[in-house]
Amino acid sequence: MPNYLKTKTQEKTRAKAVLEQAVAVHLAFREMLHVKRIWNLDYRLPGQPDVSSDQLSFIVQVFITLVQFFIYFELESITATQRTLCATGG
Asked: Does 2 reside within a domain?
């Protein structure tokens, strides 16, 4: 496999790992929301006591959306690079 593809594959793997971790955090957070309703608890970050769990959920959703955007952007960049290399015979 050419080096430029190997590097891009490693970058895709890292980006996918970050996305999977962000999604896992979001899903775990959503599963624990019933605790808020049943026990009347609202989880807070130790360093941000004024940020509610709903605000944290929104922040996680925005983060996941940004990660998805950059993954798709990078995948399109890889495709464009491959087209250029094929056109130039590289």
From this structure: no
